[in-house]
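$ run holo --ligand "uracil" --emit tokens
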Amino acid sequence: MPSLEKLKEKLQNCKGCPLCSTRTNLVFSDGNPNADIMLIGEAPGADEDRLGIPFVGRAGKLLDEFFKKAGIDRQKDVYICNTLKCRPPNNRKPELSEKKACAPYLKQQMETVNPKIIILCGATALESFIKGTTISRARGKVFKGSKGTVFVPIFHPSYLLRHHSLEENSPRDLMLKDLRFIKKLSLQDVTEV
Ligand code: URA
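-- output --
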């Protein structure tokens, strides 16, 4: 997929916001650029910044466990990236100016991968695409995007690190249900949904 490689190269030299001067590594993507499912998270944390790969820290490992339980293969079934490609210092929330600077690159990733389903993982990713709702209300629902793609918001795994219950309708229970639903949806014609 040469255009993603070119985009990554371009981003290595991006000076669109000040985060380029504090990051260690650009965190562009992981997984399969030909996958039917794309996941958009918030921004790299310390482990991601160190390794240059999204979702490899504690939250990422928990996400992997949920993927496995839902029958989703991280390397084969999903293309994973973030709203921001560079780590905000001390893991603070991305600022609007940083999201605006990174948005054209994310858009190009979305257009090139052209997945059936885009998972909006957590509130930051949700807010960029679906207005006037919250992650608790929106998670597990299908929102129609343009060109036949659908968006499905889910909880961010860092939220699940603070909520351990597996009871019916607990955040972890809902996360597993949402990912199982997404897996099933990925096997369907989503334009019919
Ligand atoms: N949280 C995110 O949103 N993205 C990562 O890559 C890691 C943690």
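-- notes --
The mean pLDDT is 97.
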